[in-house]
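Could you please review the protein record set out just below?
***
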Amino acid sequence: MDPATSCLQLRLRVPRSPARVASVRRLLTHALTAIGVVPGCRDDVVLAVNEACSNVVDHAPAVYEYDVAVTVDATWCVAEVFDCGPGMTEPWRDRHRGPRALRGRGLHLIRVVTDNVELRAVHPHGLAIRMTKRLSWEGEMPAGWTADAYEHWTVLDNRTPRTNGSAAAHPDGQTVTFL
């Protein structure tokens, strides 16, 4: 999304801890409420980001911090969570683990409550997840806000610019490869 047409941008570097996941959840809830996103839609976005952040806490124990970027325009919310942990050891299979499963439902849940989910490998290690959700507004959408294409990854564009169309460098020398 182009910052000139966006109505909200949040970029956070978050320490890896359960308490900080709750802080991200509260901040995002307040921000989406303040700009007039309807409660059900807002709850879906917050739940998806919460699950992605919780996955970093649960599955990337060597990571000290991770990045969260949320960009909103008149039509879409794009949320990205990027870490430098071990990445996924096996390909993501969209399988439902059942209502009694205590673990392993986060990515399925994210997929259910968003319109699109993309996972990208970070080399030599790590994972980036991008979640998009079409927004619904309380009353009219804010005047002057326009929709824009969301082709680039905000969290990656905060770092070293891409040198080709297929990768972006991480400040620690890692590369995100677009699968």
Q: What stands out?
A: The longest strand covers residues 8-15. Residues 154-179 have pLDDT under 50 and may be disordered.
